[in-house]
Amino acid sequence: MALPYELLIGLRYTRARKRNGFISFISAFSMLGIALGVAALIVVLSVMNGFQKELRTRILGVASHIQITGADGELPRWQDVAAQAGRHKSVQAVAPFVQSQGMFSVDNGVRGTVVRGVLPEMEDRVADFRAHMKSGKFDDLQSGSYNVVLGAELARALRVFVGDKVTLIAPQGTVTPAGLVPRLKTFTVSGIFEVGMFEYDNGLALIHMEDAQRLYRMGDDVSGVRLKLDDLFQAPRVARELSRMISADAFLFDWTKSHANFFRAVQIEKNMMFIILSLIVAVAAFNLVTTLVMAVTDKQADIAILRTLGARPQSIMAVFVVQGAIVGLLGMALGIGGGVALALNVDVVVPFIERLLGTQFLDKSVYYISQLPSELRWNDVWLVTGISFVLALLATLYPSWRAARVNPAEALRYE
Description:
The chain has helices at residues 5-15, 21-60, 78-86, 120-123, 152-158, 198-201, 209-215, 235-245, 255-258, 260-298, 300-308, 313-344, 346-357, 378-404, 408-412; strands at 66-70, 91-106, 109-118, 133-136, 147-151, 165-176, 179-193, 204-208, 224-229, 250-254. It is α+β, with helices and mostly antiparallel strands and 415 residues long. The chain has a 6-stranded mixed β-barrel with strand order 2-3-8-5-7-6.
C-alpha cells in the first residue's frame, strides 16, 4: 500500500541534510533534551518507587497489616477473636500482643518507651524482628525470665548492651499507705534489634506477653491481635470485611490508616518530582517549536510549490507534524532505553560514581538506607512516554499551522 505523500515528505525532511546547519543543531539538541528528560523521569520515579517499597517493608516488618484492639484498651477472649479473623481467606497469620507505656531507668538515666508484650513463636508469623536482630536472640523472650529486647537507638540512649540490667517503671501503680507507688521491675537485656526506622528503633521494647500481662495486671486479657495478609494492598478491604465477622467490641486499623501521613508524604514527594522533572521535557518541546519554525522558514519555497501543485493546507500541516513527531519519537526511544537501563542498574552505576568522586551520597552514619533502591514499574514508563509524546505533538501544532498559512505567491516572489 502506498504511503501518504505527507508522510513521505515529512520523513524526507527529517533525514535530509539541512542547508542551514543551525537548524540541524537545534533539532539534535531538541532530540537530546527529550531523551534526557524521559530518562531522568524514568530513573527518578524508579528510585522513588524503590524508597517507597523499602520504607514500607521496614515499617511493616514491625507494624502489622491489620491490628484489632479492644475498645477500652483490653481485648478479652483474644483466642476467639483470633479464630474469627483467621477464618478470612486473606489472613495468613494472627498474633496477640500487650502494649503500654513504660519508662526504663539505668543508673541516673531514664527513657520513655512503648513496651510491647509478644509471643515469640507467633510474632514471627506477623513481623520480622528475628531478621533485624543486631545482637542477642529473639527466642530468649521466655515467660518468667523477664528479658527485654530493645531498639538499637533506645539501647544506645540507655548505654546498655546484651546482659545488662534495666529497670522498667510501669505507669500502673500500687496503692500504699504512703500513696500511689509506681510498679518497678528489673529486666535483663537479651537482645537488640534495628529495623532502620527511628520511630521503632528509638521507642520500642519487646518483652514476653505473659510478663507484660503480669506487669500491667491484665490477667488473661491482651491489648489486641495483629494480622498478616497475603496481599498487604488489600488491607482496607479486608479490614472492612473483618469488622462484620468479628463479634467482639473492638477497633480495626489497617496499615494505610496507622501510617497514612507518612505514606501520603512519600507519594506527594513522588508526584512533585514527576511534575518538576516533566519541565525538562517541556523545555525540550519548546526547542522543538524553534526547530520547526526555522524549518518552515527554510522550506517556504518548497511549501509554495506544493501548494501550487494542489496540496491542501491540512497536508502542509501534516508534513511538519510528521517531522516534529519523528524527532520526538527518536528522543523518546533514546530516553526510554537509557532510562530503563540506568534504573535497572542503579546499584551498579551509583557505587561507580561514588568511587569515581571519592564520596558517598548516603552516608551510613546519617541515613538508614545507605544504598539507592530502585524499582522499575512499566506503567510509569508508559505514562512518561505518553506525556512526552503528547508534548512533542503539541509542540508541532503552531509551526505546522504557520506553514499552512504560507502564501505561495509571496514565497516565490524572490525565487
